[in-house]
Write a structure and sequence with these properties.
30% helix, single chain, eleven-stranded mixed β-sheet, 10 helices, globular, alpha/beta
């Protein structure tokens, strides 16, 4: 993206993408209520699909196709929230953010399944518009037909997440959504050891997130219980094994060239941990999530498929 394209894209974003009008967010504000993004389980389809190759967008399409197709997850008229990792001012080849081709493929598939709107969002850590532009996710998602939310004061509503997290500002797209597709990238993390499916949900809340760090494992699981994604499409095309979560050097990466899709975020994180040479028991929040009934840490015991 050249400077003129960057400025043009930023201007379009500023023209109205930061504002999310209040709608069905109110249900989530009541204590004890949780958004339900789940779809019925299938007794025959794979629970996790691993797509290997050199085209992240094509791999995402193949993985979702093999797990039942986007029509299994998105119904006509649904409002779909897509949550990638967009936190860092870093180009796609360095693996700090989700690959933009994967995000674009998810948006296109959701719209193709009949979604009335697809919203791409994240609580971005560094300067939001620059992160969206440099990562490639902003323009790729917009070209694919998504509405891209650039976070601002009007992007949040208070909701009771529960547990240690408690009541927090939560990004409105998730509170308005009928379905949630989480599209994280696998990375090493200095505090939690791993960031993948469940840690990606840190990006749905605002406020002073640093106060959650003393109990980061509990916080991650609270968020995973609050907003269980309809589908997770996990970017392991290149994986940051050190200096996470922001990294910055090609030498920080390995290249598994895999996109995984599944409905069990615990199992996906257990698999992601193996890419970093970790056992599920090495990552505190994986065991905690399993004990709270959020999924299985034994990904090898699930129905899997390679494409």
């Amino acid at each position: 993206m050249n400077r003129r394209e960057f400025l043009a894209w930023g201007a379009r974003s500023a023209a109205g993408l930061a504002f999310c009008p209040p709608a069905r967010w109110l249900f989530a504000a009541a204590p004890g209520r949780r958004p339900d993004f789940s779809v019925p389980p299938s007794p025959t389809l794979p629970q996790i699909v691993f797509a290997k190759g050199d085209s992240p967008g094509a791999q995402a399409r193949a993985a979702v196709g093999a797990i039942g197709g986007m029509g299994r997850f998105v119904a006509r008229g649904d409002r779909v929230a897509v949550k990638p990792n967009i936190s860092w001012d870093s180009p796609p080849e360095l693996g700090a953010d989700t690959h933009p081709e994967i995000v674009a493929a998810i948006v296109e598939m959701a719209l193709g399944a009949g979604a009335r709107e697809v919203v791409v969002f994240d609580h971005i850590i560094e300067e939001p518009r620059r992160c969206l532009a440099v990562s490639g996710i902003g323009p790729a998602a917009e070209r694919a037909g998504a509405r891209v939310v650039v976070q601002g004061a009007r992007s949040f509503r208070d909701a009771d997440v529960g547990g240690f997290v408690g009541r927090q500002p939560v990004m409105i797209p998730i509170l308005e959504a009928d379905k949630l597709i989480s599209v994280p990238v696998v990375k090493q993390h200095g505090l939690s050891k791993l960031t993948a499916s469940m840690k990606n949900l840190y990006g749905i809340v605002g406020g002073r997130r640093g106060k959650l760090h003393p109990k980061i494992d509990e916080s991650i699981v609270d968020l995973a219980a609050f907003a269980r994604p309809t589908l997770v499409v996990l970017d392991a095309t290149r994986v940051m094994t050190r200096h996470g979560p922001s990294g910055g050097k090609p030498g920080d990466l390995i290249h598994p060239r895999i996109v995984a899709a599944g409905t069990d975020q615990v199992a996906l994180d257990a698999w992601a941990a193996s890419l970093l040479g970790l056992k599920p028991s090495d990552v505190g929040y994986i065991g905690l999530a399993r004990s709270r009934g959020l999924g299985s840490a034994d990904y090898g015991g699930l129905r899997t498929k390679e494409v």
